[in-house]
Design brief:
The structure holds 2 protein chains of 2 kinds. The relative contact order of chain A is 0.07. Chain A is elongated. In chain A, 78% of the residues lie in helices and 0% in strands. Chain A is built from 10 helices and no strands. The longest helix of chain A is centred in the middle third of the chain and has 48 residues. Chain B is mainly alpha-helical. Helix content of chain B is 82%, strand content 0%. Classes of the chains: A mainly alpha, B mainly alpha. Chains A and B meet through helix 6, helix 7, helix 8, helix 9 and helix 10 of A and helix 1, helix 2, helix 3, helix 4 and helix 5 of B.
Chain lengths: 209, 233
């Protein structure tokens, strides 16, 4: 039974993806509650595996003492390793998926000769896949949310290129900055003001959902 | 080059960039102000350190290529907040569309007009006019308009910095408080950097900004070949 337990551990951590609360409960020894109380997704998955339910129920009822002894020593460590490997594989697969969508967008744009950025096409394709239900949000959420949260990071190395613009900025830098700042301020005001005016016309303000 | 091997320089540049970025996140939390915007703050630190250590941008470039490898996938991932907030977006589609058109066309015309007043060369005027578009497409539009792609990229980055740094401050002064309007304005004018700034204000703002960045790029790409020659006349 312990072998079976060990063999199934990655699956179990798979069922509890990114649920820190439940993970903590499992780690604190409340395993079966945490696992079986976790909801339908994992249990349904088990039901489709040959013999999956049988293992599940035997774990729950039968081997008490032996299982507990092993569970206390072996389980936390194995589970942690399994969970780490699972998360690593998950992030790698998600990044590969996002990268493929980006590459497909770049390729499509280059092939069709469209004046549109490829990553924009990739984004629209991912949105269409999500909206049509072909792709589930959970498939990309871990990596995607992290990348978006730190989107600013990817612009830092590009802006460092400004250090090579010294001569141009010295010659007509002030004028360029004035032009960029004034036009940005006007564009920001126009976009923000007009949209807010129309938003207030149609419904009450502060529509944060 | 300092006689160091490129691998050491690249490793140093990556550690420096991540360190500066982490420091900027801390600084923004501790002292929130336009000057502690992560892109501005990190860039200043990195350029200062590169100048002190006598490294050029050419030395830094391999590290830049490694670190921006995930920029494309990260842009694709903007579909996630967009999908999550799709109902909020479609509810606001009319105000957003008008704001987007006014913002992206208004900033292009103003930039081109002021650049003309300063008497800049046509190449420079074209490059300045399309500065509110995300870097990859701005470079493509610059080629169509016979602008300078490298200068365009620099103007795009400066505009992103200006908008992301001072945009929230300006909108506070103007009473633009709605998260949809703030996200829309930041994404339309300051593309990716504005989107990152909007995303730090809230997920709805970030999602709308992501859409505005994409649609603003399309809008400018379609309008610029007609508008910019007119501005140059």
């Amino acid at each position: 039974m312990t072998q079976l337990n060990a063999a199934r551990l990655p699956e179990r951590s798979g069922g509890s993806r990114s649920r820190t609360m439940l993970d903590l409960r499992e780690a604190s020894g409340d395993c079966d509650l945490g696992w079986h109380g976790e909801g339908f997704r994992y249990r349904n998955a088990v039901a489709y595996l040959p013999g999956g339910l049988a293992h599940g129920s035997s774990t729950l009822r039968d081997d008490g003492a032996e299982r507990n002894r092993w569970a206390e020593t072996l389980q936390p460590a194995t589970e942690a390793v399994g969970r780490f490997c699972y998360q690593l594989a998950l992030v790698a697969a998600q990044l590969l998926g996002l990268w493929s969508l980006n590459a497909a967008g770049v390729w499509a744009v280059a092939t069709a000769g469209l004046p549109v950025p490829g990553n924009l096409i990739g984004m629209l394709v991912l949105f269409a896949l999500l909206a049509s239900g072909i792709v589930k949000l959970s498939w990309f959420e871990t990596s995607g949310s992290f990348l978006i949260k730190h989107l600013a990071f990817f612009f830092v190395p590009i802006t460092v290129g400004l250090m090579d613009m010294g001569p141009l900025l010295a010659a007509s830098g002030v004028g360029i900055i004035v032009t960029l700042a004034l036009s940005a301020a006007l564009g920001l005001s126009l976009a923000g003001w007009i949209s807010q005016l129309l938003l207030c016309d149609t419904k009450e303000r502060g529509g944060r959902s | 080059m300092n006689g160091l091997s490129p691998a050491v320089v690249t490793g140093f540049a990556i550690v420096l960039t991540i360190g500066a970025y982490a420091l900027s996140l801390w600084a923004r939390r501790r002292y929130p102000s336009p000057l502690t915007t992560p892109v501005l703050f990190s860039t200043v630190i990195i350029i200062a350190v590169l100048l002190i250590t006598d490294l050029s941008f050419a030395d830094y470039a391999p590290a830049k290529d490694i670190m921006t490898f995930l920029l494309g996938p990260a842009t694709v991932a903007l579909a996630i907040p967009l999908y999550k907030n799709r109902q909020a977006f479609f509810r606001n589609v009319v105000p957003a569309a008008f704001g987007l058109l006014a913002g992206s066309l208004g900033t292009m015309i103003t930039a081109g007009f002021i650049a003309r007043l300063f008497g800049y060369a046509p190449e420079l005027v074209s490059s300045i006019a399309i500065k509110s578009v995300t870097v990859p497409i701005a470079v493509e539009i610059a080629k169509i308009l016979h602008g300078d792609p490298i200068m365009t990229a620099a103007f795009v980055v400066i505009t992103g910095m200006i908008g992301a740094s001072f945009g929230p401050w300006l909108m506070d002064r103007l009473g633009i408080t709605h998260p949809v309007s703030r996200g829309l304005a930041l994404g339309t004018i300051s593309h990716g950097q504005g989107t990152a700034q909007a995303a730090s204000e809230g997920e709805l703002s970030g999602a709308i900004a992501g859409v505005a960045m994409g649609l603003g790029a399309v809008c400018t790409a379609l309008a610029a070949p007609w508008l910019v020659p007119f501005l140059l006349r």
